[in-house]
Known about the structure:
The chain is of the alpha+beta class.
Amino acid sequence: MRAHVFITDERTFPVVRDNNFYGVGVKGIPVSLGGLISENLKNPRKPYFAMVGDVLGTRIGDIVFLYERQVGFHGIYRIASEPFFDPTPIGCVDETWPLRVEMECLNYFVEPVPEDYLFSTKEYEAKFWGWFYRKIQGARGVNTINPEAAEALIELLVKVNGNAINRPTQIKPYPSKNKIKIALPLDQDGKVYLEDILRAWLIKNIDNPNRSDLREVFGPVEDLEWFANNIPYHVTRKNIDTLSYHKNMKYTGLPLRYKFSVVELKRDLADAKAVSQVINYSKWVAGRLANSEIEAVQPILVAYNFKREAIIKAKNSDFSDKGITFVKYEVKHNDIFLYKESI
Length: 343
């Protein structure tokens, strides 16, 4: 199950609920997609491409919970469109939320789940690790949560409410037709302009069944249980670039989560420090998510190229028998292509 928590407050919650959409942005964001791209390319410290990456990580059919600040979690909703750009004001939601997706209500629970319920037992605490770290770091508009957390939130909604009721009668279709498809600027002499763009491209395409290069790195699409970008794993601002879970029923007849792919991305040359980063992230995933089974975790380093020191560091690593997967990327024909390297 892939699921997300979208952040709202007492003003914005009824607007997005009743108009079947959600959006992210920030004060001062350009009111055109071209302006957004141009401004972020001129000033890489702007957060626009990171926000684009967050919305590009959604898929039609993904589950959504609306978190209302100081109130709790509302549900259950579902993504109903691909991401788009539209600065049209809707109620109190103005042009500062232009990166949007449409959604629809699946089951309407009148009473929200208070946030403290997420940490009311050790079992729930273990499932909501991602939300805990994200709150400590500072919540984003779109927060992808792990499957266990999504199932627990549904469970809590049922415990708090009993049964869901019919959808609220005031809900109406998304009221604007000014939707613009989001396209990423890619090429700068074979490299991406910014690392945030590489991250956004990967999360958008990771489950593309027609990309043989991605399938070679991440395996069959049908085994790709869950994936997300910018995964918080520490109280400081430490994030895993991309994390994915892999599962199948082929051999056991039961769902078996058999691998975790931990990805570190570098726009330019990867050095020894980058190797250490992906190893440290992988150790955390092994200990926290994979029952300390090191061999179930695959570190992947994606970069334009690799310094010799990075190759030496990887060869000397004793993280696991599988080693570290090195993947080169190249921008050409207005797209990104990946190439697994032998080291």
